[in-house]
Specification:
Blueprint (H helix, E strand, L loop, with lengths): L1 H19 L24 H5 L9 H11 L6 H4 L7 E2 L5 E5 L4 H6 L6 H14 L7 E4 L23 H18 L3 E5 L1 H8 L5 H4 L4 E2 L12 E5 L2 H6 L4 H17 L3
Parallel strand pairs: 2-3, 2-4, 4-6
Antiparallel strand pairs: 1-3, 5-6
Bound molecules: uracil.
The site of uracil has 10 residues, from loops.
């Protein structure tokens, strides 16, 4: 009991300290108890519920979100609390794509709501003058990849998605892109960049320029531009990467303003 109290106090102290830095992650103790229903909750409702100020998604996005909420194409569908479909404007000109949901996202059913998400919001606002409701935010995989799905409340339980999980989930992202018709995708980190550009190089080698999305979603001559940049989690670990990220975001801003890149 004493040890639990000491742990909770430590969590709270860390939380308050992070709040000071404006990058708070709620203490684990504050999260609702995880129950894993035999049939996962109607997760499509969760992103909408978390998302009341957002423009209503078009019907095909609703249908797709429903499909994702029931998906069992890979093992992640059995361990998740909520599928994390995506959030933002269905008419966004730019879609930010991360790797996959973590602990906070799994609980809330919304992408990028933990510390990385708070930093992403800050970047959107300070560099681009945008809110998360002006853009669209999604992930390569829609369910939380856990090292040990049997201990879902454990710290440090996140892992990158496997190639099988990525290929099972990949069609959902292309469907989202088809519905949104963005001018540009920003890939956040190596995993999203490798998957969407089909390259096998690290993010520091690939970033700094734009690419054409290799999947022709709207026919030849209508490519979506791809701007790869660092994952916000990498910036939290290594603030020296912020300068390059700012450059990438300035490239995006100029593209959104001028249509040229
Ligand atoms: N990291 C990601 O890649 N995606 C999220 O939604 C949260 C953290």
């Amino acid at each position: 009991m004493k040890r639990e109290l000491a742990g909770a106090a430590r969590d709270l102290a860390a939380y308050l300290k992070a709040q000071d830095e404006n990058l708070a992650e709620p203490p684990r103790g504050a999260a609702p108890a995880r129950t894993r229903p035999p049939v996962p909750v109607a997760a499509a409702a969760a992103p909408e519920a978390a998302n009341t100020q957002m423009t209503k998604p078009p019907a095909d996005m609703d249908a797709l979100a429903q499909q994702v909420s029931k998906c069992r194409k890979c093992g992640l569908g059995h361990a998740r609390l909520n599928a994390v479909f995506g959030v933002g404007s269905p008419k966004a000109r730019v879609v930010f794509v991360g790797e996959g949901p973590g602990f906070q996202e799994d609980h809330k059913g919304e992408p990028f709501v933990g510390r990385s998400g708070q930093l992403l919001d800050k970047i959107l606002e300070t560099v681009l003058g945008l809110k998360r409701s002006d853009v669209y935010i999604a992930n390569i995989v829609k369910c939380h990849p856990m090292k040990n799905p049997e201990t879902p409340e454990a710290h440090g339980n996140d892992r990158p998605p496997t190639p099988e999980e990525i290929s099972a989930c990949r069609p959902y992202l292309d469907e989202q892109l088809r519905a949104i018709r963005p001018a540009c995708i920003v890939t956040l980190g190596s995993v999203a960049t490798k998957v969407l550009l089909g390259v096998d190089k690290g993010i520091s080698t690939v970033r700094g320029r734009s690419y054409d999305y290799p999947v022709e979603l709207f026919g030849p001559g209508h490519p979506i531009k791809v701007i790869p940049t660092y994952h916000p989690a990498a910036l939290l670990r290594n603030p020296n990467l912020k300068r390059d990220t700012w450059e990438d975001m300035k490239m995006l801003k100029s593209f959104l303003e001028t249509g040229k890149i």
